[in-house]
Amino acid sequence: MGQAIISVWRRFTTGETRSLGVQARLIALACLVVDVVGFLVVTPHLAIGLRVVTVAGIVLVDAALSLPARYSAQLAVAHCLAAVGLALVLRNVPGADWNLAGGLIAAYRVGAWLKRRSSVASLVALALGVVVGTWLVTHSAVSTLLTPMENALIPWLVGRYTSSRRGFIEELRHNRELEVRDARAETERAANRLQTSIARDLHDVIAHHISAIGVHAGAVRLKLSAQPECADQDIIDSLSAVETSSRAAMVELRRLLDLLHGRPQLSANQPGLHNLNELFNGVRRSGLAIRFQADGTPPGLPDSIDTALYRVAQEMLTNAQRHGDGTPVDVRLVFAADVVTLSARNSIGRKPASEMSIGRGLAGIRSRVGLYGGSFTCGPIDDNTWETSVSIGTTPEEAPCQYAS
Hints:
By secondary structure, the protein is α+β, with helices and mostly antiparallel strands. The protein is about 65% helix and about 10% strand. The chain has three domains: about 1-140, no CATH class; about 185-265; about 270-395, Histidine kinase-like ATPase, C-terminal domain (Heat Shock Protein 90, 2-Layer Sandwich), CATH 3.30.565.10. It has a five-stranded mixed sheet, with helices on one face. Helix 10 links the parallel strand 1 (about 290-295) and strand 2 (about 330-335).
C-alpha cells in the first residue's frame, strides 16, 4: 500500500500526469476523504438516514471541486449552502468541527481563477455561509468574526496572490520575448549594415583595381600585337590570360555583391564542377600545366556542394601557382557511393616542405568543407610534394553534374 501511494505521488510531482484536470481530481478526492471521514467520526450517534444524506451532500460538493475553473463561482455558492446545511446537522453535536476542507479549496479557486468582481462576489457568498454556520454551531461573536477570515478570506487572498504572481511571470516572459525579438532584429540590421559596407568597399576598391588591371593588360596586348617585330607571343598570351582572369574575377565579384546586397536570385548561376574546364584553361594560359583525372560516376550534387568543390579547386590551383615550382599539378576527382573527394598535388618550389604552414587559403578550405561536415587534409607527402585533399558527403538531389575531362 505504501509503495503504491509513493508511486502515485512521484507520478504527480514529476509531471507524468501533471495537468490541471488530474490535479483537480486528486485535490477533490483528498478533500472528500477528509470531510467524509471527519464527519463520520464525530457523528456516531446521529440517525443513519441523516448521516447518509449528509455524506451524500459532502461527496457532491467536494467531488465538484474537480470541475474546470470556469465553475468556481457555482462551487462557491454550493459550499456556502453546504456550510449552512452541515451546521444545521451538527449544531447539537458537542465539539463537532463543521468546517469543510473543500470550502478552503473553493475559496482559493475563486481567488485564483475568477476576475475581480466575480471573485469578490464569490468570496462574499462563502463568507456568508461560514458566518451563518459558525453562529448556528457556536453562538460566539468572536468565532463568528474570526472563522470567516480563517476559512474564506485567507484562502481567497492566497488565490489572489497566486493569480497576481502568475500574471507577473507572464508579463516578465512577454517582456523577455520582446527583448529577444528586438535584439534579434537589431542584430539583423547590424549584419545588413555590415554587408552593405563590405559590398561598398568591394565595389569601390577591388572592382576598380581589377577593372584597371584588365584594361591595362588589354591595352599593352593590343600595342604589342600591332608591332609584330617587337611582340613576344608568350608575353601576349600572358597578357591575354590576365585579361581573361580579370573578367572572370569581375563576374565573381558581381555575384558576391549581389549576395551581400540581399539579391541571391541575381547570382543564382554559381560556378560548379561543370566549370572546371574553364578554370583549368585559365590556369594553363598562365603557364601552369594541369593533369586532371576523374574516377567514378558523378552523383547529383546539391548546388551548394557543387559550388564549394569548385571554390576548393580554385584555391588549390592558386596555392600551386604561388608556392609551386611551375611543374604540372595533378588534380584528381573521385566519386564514391556517398562521398566525393577532390585532391591536388604539386611540387614545392619556394620553401622546404617542413617550413610550409597553413595560411588563409587553406584555412578557408577547411572552413568551407566544415560547413558540410566534410574532412580536410593538407601537408607534404615527401620533401618536395604537397598534397591537399577534401572529402564531402553528398546525397543525390538534382541532375548529375558534368565535370571537366
